């Protein structure tokens, strides 16, 4: 049913109730409907969102910089197979992340965090520490994305960027 609901398929159910009044039965017909945006038995569509902050800003070349990625399922249903990905900007070197391995793994300039299932209203954060290369100057921009297995109605909040000035 979840698969059908996510694709906006409309369900119609006809229900008949028999009401007895002193031995005489009366049939009462009713209808229950569910359309896109609603599920028959609770739930709804997830809405994953991600934001990012940096500290310190500005940062000196050669020093550590921390990015904090906050994520949340602000929708009406659970999100499964949630992944936050962050391709680090050039001019920085990865130091660590929290959570670390096995949830988050760094490879070839990208930190990938597999965060499992996020219930409605669930969320958390990922902290990433990088060292700014000594030759880096000016603005650097970091971008993170969040994805899940379910289709979302609003994907405009699935990406966040933060620009940091390097002195």
Structure description:
This protein has 167 residues and is an all-beta fold. Helices cover 3% and strands 58% of the residues. The protein has a 5-stranded antiparallel sheet, with no helix packed on it. It has a 4-stranded antiparallel sheet with strand order 3-4-9-6, with no helix packed on it. The longest helix is centred in the N-terminal third of the chain and has 5 residues, at 2-6. The chain is elongated, with a radius of gyration of 24 Å.
Question: What keyword list fits this structure?
Answer:
mainly beta; Immunoglobulin-like; 2 domains; 5-stranded antiparallel beta sheet; 4-stranded antiparallel beta sheet; 1 helix; 3% helix; elongated; disordered N terminus
Topology:
Layout: H1 2-6, E1 11-21, E2 24-34, E3 48-55, E4 64-73, E5 79-87, E6 92-98, E7 104-107, E8 110-118, E9 123-132, E10 138-147, E11 159-166
Antiparallel strand pairs: 1-2, 3-4, 4-9, 5-8, 5-10, 6-9, 7-8, 10-11
């Amino acid at each position: 049913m979840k698969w059908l609901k996510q694709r906006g398929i409309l369900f119609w159910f006809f229900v008949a109730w028999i009401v007895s009044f002193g031995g005489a039965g009366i049939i009462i017909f009713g209808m229950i409907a569910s359309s896109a945006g609603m599920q028959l038995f609770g739930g709804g569509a997830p809405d994953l969102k991600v934001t990012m902050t940096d500290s310190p800003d500005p940062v000196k070349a050669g020093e550590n910089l921390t990015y904090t990625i906050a994520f949340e399922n602000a929708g009406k249903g659970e999100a499964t197979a949630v992944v936050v990905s962050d391709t680090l900007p050039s001019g920085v070197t990865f130091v660590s992340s929290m959570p670390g391995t096995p949830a988050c793994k760094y490879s070839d300039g990208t930190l990938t965090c597999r965060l499992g299932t996020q219930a409605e209203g669930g969320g958390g954060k990922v902290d990433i520490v990088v060292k700014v290369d000594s030759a880096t100057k000016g603005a650097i921009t970091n971008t993170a994305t969040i994805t899940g297995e379910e289709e979302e109605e609003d994907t405009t909040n699935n990406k966040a960027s933060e620009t940091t000035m390097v002195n």
